[in-house]
Design goal:
Layout (H helix, E strand, L loop, with lengths): L2 H29 L10 H32 L5 H31 L4 H20 L1 H4 L17 H29 L3 H4 L3 H30 L7 H34 L2 H31 L24
C-alpha cells in the first residue's frame, strides 16, 4: 500500500473517533445545565468533570495530525506523519473509553443505585478497552511497509483532498460545542449563572461560530472561486483557514470548561487552573510538533554546507615556503 493511502486511512480513522467523541463531549457539557444535574451525587458530578477533561484531551490528540500536516508536511506524505498519526490515535482511545464509561455510569445513576451504575460504567469502559486495544494482544502486528523514504510524489488534487479531510476532522468538535452553547443559553441553569460566567459563555459561543465559518470557508472557496478545480491557491487557502480555525477552537472549548468547573466546584482558582492547563495542552499538542519540526528543518545544521572561505593546502592554496 502506498504511503499516502496509509495516511489517508489514518485520517479517516481519526474522523471516526472524533464523530463518536463529539456525542460524549456534547453530553458532558450539557449534563451540567440539565434540570436533573442537581440530583446527581457530588461524586457523580466530579466523575463527569474528570471524564469531560479527559475527553477534551482525547479530542486534542485526535486532531493533532491535521495541525502537524498543515504546519510542516503541508500535504506531503511522510513516514513521520504516519507514525505521529498512529501514536496520537493510540493515546486518544483511552480517554474516549473513560468518557464512554463515565457517561454510561452517570446516566444509569438516575434510575439505579450507585453499585449498579458503577458496575455498568466500568463494564462499558473495559469492553471498549478490550475491543479497541485487543488487536495487539490477540494477533501479531503486521510488518510495516518500506516507508523509509522522505515521501512520494503526490498530485495536487490528492493534497487538496487530504486538506479537506483534515478540515472534516476538526468540524465535529466544533459541532459538539456550538450545539451545546446555543441550547445552554435557553436553560434555567444558565440564567442563574453570575453575569461574568454568562459573558465567558457568550465569548466561547462567538469563538465557536467564527471557527465554524473558517472551517466551511475552504468548501465555499472551492465552489465559488475555483469552480471545483484543483489549484495551488485552493490548497494554500484551505491550509490557512484550517490553521486559523485550530487557533480559535481551543478558547471556545476551554472557556466553557471554565464555566462548568466553576458551576460544580464553586472554586474560581480551580476552574481557571484546569481550563488554562487545557488551553495550553491544546496549543502544545496541535502546534508544537509542527513548529518544532519546521524550525529544526530550517536550522543552519540542516542547510546546505557552505564552501570554505580559503582553499586548503594542496588544493590550490598559496604555500608561503615557496
Amino acid at each position: 500500500m502506498k504511503l499516502k493511502d496509509k495516511i489517508k486511512f489514518a485520517l479517516d480513522e481519526a474522523r471516526i473517533l472524533i464523530l463518536g467523541g463529539q456525542v460524549l463531549v456534547g453530553f458532558g457539557y450539557n449534563s451540567f445545565f440539565q434540570p436533573g444535574s442537581p440530583k446527581l451525587l457530588v461524586l457523580s458530578q466530579y466523575v463527569m468533570l474528570g471524564s469531560l477533561a479527559l475527553l477534551l484531551a482525547g479530542l486534542a490528540l485526535t486532531m493533532a495530525p491535521a495541525a502537524r500536516d498543515r504546519l510542516f508536511e503541508q500535504g506531503e506524505p511522510t513516514p513521520g506523519l504516519l507514525h505521529f498519526a498512529t501514536t496520537m490515535l493510540d493515546y486518544a482511545l483511552f480517554p474516549f473509553a473513560v468518557g464512554l464509561g463515565a457517561a454510561a455510569g452517570v446516566a444509569l445513576r438516575m434510575i439505579a443505585g450507585t453499585a449498579v451504575s458503577a458496575a455498568a460504567g466500568s463494564a462499558f469502559f473495559l469492553i471498549a478497552i478490550f475491543v479497541w486495544y485487543g488487536g495487539r494482544w490477540v494477533a501479531a502486528p503486521t510488518p510495516a511497509g518500506q516507508d523509509s523514504q522522505k515521501g512520494e510524489s503526490v498530485e495536487l488534487k490528492d493534497k487538496i483532498d487530504q486538506a479537506l479531510t483534515e478540515t472534516r476532522m476538526v468540524l465535529p468538535g466544533v459541532q459538539a460545542m456550538l450545539g451545546f452553547q446555543f441550547i445552554a443559553m435557553l436553560s434555567d441553569s444558565f440564567q442563574r449563572l453570575p453575569d461574568a460566567f454568562k459573558y465567558v459563555h457568550v465569548a466561547s459561543l462567538g469563538t465557536s461560530a467564527v471557527t465554524t465559518i473558517l472551517l466551511i470557508a475552504p468548501a465555499a472557496f472551492h465552489r465559488v472561486a475555483e469552480h471545483g478545480e484543483a489549484t495551488d491557491r485552493q490548497h494554500r487557502v484551505t491550509t490557512r483557514f484550517l490553521v486559523a480555525a485550530m487557533l480559535t477552537l481551543p478558547p471556545a472549548i476551554t472557556g466553557d470548561l471554565l464555566v462548568v468547573f466553576w458551576k460544580v466546584t464553586s472554586s474560581l482558582p480551580l476552574a481557571l487552573g484546569v481550563s488554562g492547563a487545557m488551553l495550553v495542552f491544546f496549543y502544545a499538542v496541535w502546534f508544537l510538533p509542527g513548529l518544532t519540526l519546521r524550525a529544526h528543518e530550517r536550522s543552519p545544521a540542516h542547510s546546505p554546507a557552505r564552501m570554505p572561505m580559503h582553499p586548503s593546502p594542496g588544493h590550490g592554496a598559496h604555500d608561503p615556503s615557496h
